[in-house]
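Task: encode each sequence below as structure tokens.

Item 1
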Amino acid sequence: MYTAQQFEHIFENSSYIVEQVFERAQYTDAETLFQAFVNEVQQLTEAQQVALLQAHPSLGANIQMTNHSVAEQQQAGLKQLTQEQYTNFQRVNKAYEETFGFPFIVAVKGKSADTIYALMQQRLTNTRQAEFAEALAQVIQIARFRFDDIVGVSV
């Protein structure tokens, strides 16, 4: 049987999602549990979903973040940016946040810093509605990667 404590970090600084799912039921099947997490995110109000997005750190930023985010950004090379790359990331991050009202979110696993930067520039051209949906999809993908790491699924 799974416990809320096992999964409290799959959503960035938003353990309340996990807690709410476990308040409703006990889970022994991993896929059923993950789908319950997805359903919980989808049932949040738009304001709650925006808060979930805003709980994510800006990519490449030198700020305090969860151990999961540090490890994921490290793997993608975002902690070894040159000064020029760092400046470029900060410039595009700022433009993105000013445009959409939340930080750029992407599941960085398996992506390089250059790929992530190109995605940032490309997604800046999205409508807010399209980008909001994409950012939520990325939150779910990040949660999936973290969930699979916890339950021992190889990707």
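Item 2
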Amino acid sequence: MESIVRFDSKPVLRDPILIEALPGIGNVGKIAGDFLADTLKASRFARIFSMNFPAQVIPDDDCVVSMACNELWHAELPDGRDAVFLRGGYQANSPEGQFVLAQDVMDIIMPYGPSLVVTLGGYGTGLMADSPHVYGAVTRKELKPGLEKAGTVFNPGQPQAGIIGAAGLLLGFAQMNGVDGFCLMGETSGYFEDHKSALAVVNVLLSYFSIADADKKGLEEKAKKIDELSEQVKAAGSADSSRDDLGYIG
């Protein structure tokens, strides 16, 4: 293992489910995963340091530095299984680094006997969606019905460019190790942090894992701001079109 792992504790995990929540397109996966971790009151139990992260330390408000890292947090799900969240502000900075880091994460989690790997991300379209879809990919087709019931859409062969980064590689390593897995991708323009798309992903996760009474108010308020931004973009586009049309008059 190339990564350095520092444990805060070594919890006993029951049929753990690894849930990746790292930055990506529209930060959809990170926003959704962090929301779920916070809803379940997850606790950090490990940090992962890698040469494939930016070569820097980050000062906090007290000017105390910390190294760039990913973190593992755990929480109990309603069915008694434990969720293990892979959280952080970074993905590896090269294709080789992505591969190594994903392999290291799986090496950390495999001794716990994971029952499922879930990866989260954005499905970039370049367009503003009024009602973002949540697209899915699975390691086995038998996983699709449960996800469809929770609101996931499956488009054959999509995304055409593949699922890149941690969201794709962790799914691939799960399949390689005989662990079920799926990826949820929220439809997003990809131009900014998309809380509306993240909310759509959250709704699928809450349904799939039978999590009730989640307080979505803060996330819903941020999603409304995306609606406002979308209207501004549409209005600006209409104004530009009008100016272009006026050019043909007179």
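Check on item 2: Residues 217-246 form the longest helix (30 residues). Residues 4 and 213 are 37 Å apart (CA to CA).
End of task.
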